[in-house]
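Quiz preparation item.
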């Protein structure tokens, strides 16, 4: 990786991947996809929890496990979108 000032001094070519403004695009894409995957995962498990509702007395572990999965994956999705929003503010 060559900094722009060094490239200007030594007349070296600078590749587009060395551009600091393009580095954040990969991170934003990663955070967007991660947030979507965890959000869909949480939504699917919430749907499964509601559609296959069982009495907590008959199977308490099913309800607790599904609720834990929904909360953790929802929190990870929220965190990814929060970081995505923060990277957008930092870039501008």
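Solution:
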């Amino acid at each position: 990786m060559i900094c722009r000032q060094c490239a200007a001094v030594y007349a070296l070519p600078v590749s587009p991947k060395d551009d600091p403004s393009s580095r954040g695009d990969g991170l934003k894409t990663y955070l967007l996809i991660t947030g979507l995957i965890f959000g869909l995962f949480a939504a699917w498990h919430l749907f499964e929890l509601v559609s296959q509702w069982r009495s907590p007395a008959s199977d308490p572990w099913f309800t607790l496990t599904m609720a834990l999965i929904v909360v953790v994956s929802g929190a990870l999705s929220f965190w990814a979108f929060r970081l995505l929003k923060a990277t957008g503010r930092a870039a501008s």
